[in-house]
Amino acid sequence: MKKKVKVYVSLKQGVLDPQGKTIESSLHSLGFKEAANVRVGKVIEFEIAESADLENQIHDMCKKLLANPVMEDYRFEVEEVVRP
Amino acid sequence: MKFAVIVFPGSNCDRDMHYAVKDVLGAEAEFVWYEDECDLEKYDGILIPGGFSYGDYLRSGAIAATAEIMEQVKEQAEKGKPVLGVCNGFQILTEAGLLPGALMRNKDLSFICRNQRLVVENNETMFTSQYGKGQVVQFPIAHGEGNYFCDEDTLAELKRNNQIVFTYESNPNGSVENIAGIVNKEGNVLGMMPHPERAVDKWLGSEDGIRLFQSILENWRKTYVAN
């Protein structure tokens, strides 16, 4: 059985996110004054065969490549693969 | 002395680097395409040039850092050979774990391309022995992601071990402590955002970069060539 993995990577709290700041000020200039603490991240999706060790495998992938632990945090979700 | 200039898809300062060590310094230099069969053992120094390897996909330097040739670079670095990474080369070295910290987007998001004045903080490395301590030099910078970041413990260790080699006289990109270039603890791996290889002739606007390459050559001669 295949699983679908979604990895969310974001800059660590406390690390300045200039892109987020710029988007925030654009939102404000469009009138969305309520928007605060805008942060930009990325989502990486892939499919992978189910295994008992899946979570550890994903952690390993994140630490070795998908996220840079010096400046980024990550979290992930594992879902069923849904074909349209 | 023979240098390898490692070329990845998207490297674009490889010829500048080759020109600096071959034509200006007078050493031997060869391009090494990242996926060619090659034994880096036959080179005395390894140069990782700037550019946009793999289009900066994922994070700048992240994909190149996983290339097989980087395992060889690590082996040669462990043997004490000089390894210099400039700009994208610096990003690759941090991503590969050869240097601590990371390079983030410039603080104001802009790509900065201009001449930059730097301070030589440590002139006791194999890369900077031909400079004076505190000497101000001018190298070009050309990067969008040169904002050096590391946690406080790492920064304290960099300071304790005198690993900060170059700082910006005025900070262009938000780097912690104005850091422009660092060495590893052992002192044989240097990563820096500014381009010494583009500052090797008066007509380039500065020839301050020559001394960096001369330092490498001088130290190699002292270590490996019998008097």
Describe this structure in words.
The complex is a heterodimer of chains A (84) and B (227). By secondary structure, chain A is α+β, with helices and mostly antiparallel strands. Chain A has one domain (2-80): Mth169, Chain: A, CATH 3.30.1280. Chain A is built from 2 helices and 3 strands. Chain A has a 3-stranded antiparallel beta sheet with strand order 2-1-3, covered by helices on one side. The radius of gyration of chain A is 16 Å and the shape is elongated. The model of chain A has no long low-confidence stretch (mean pLDDT 95). Chain B is of the alpha/beta class and 227 residues long. Chain B has a single domain (2-224), classed as Rossmann fold. In chain B, the strands form 2 sheets. A 9-stranded mixed beta sheet of chain B has the order 2-1-3-4-11-10-9-6-7, sandwiched between helices. A two-stranded antiparallel sheet of chain B has the order 5-8. The model of chain B has no long low-confidence stretch (mean pLDDT 96). The interface between A and B is medium-sized, with 12 and 19 residues.
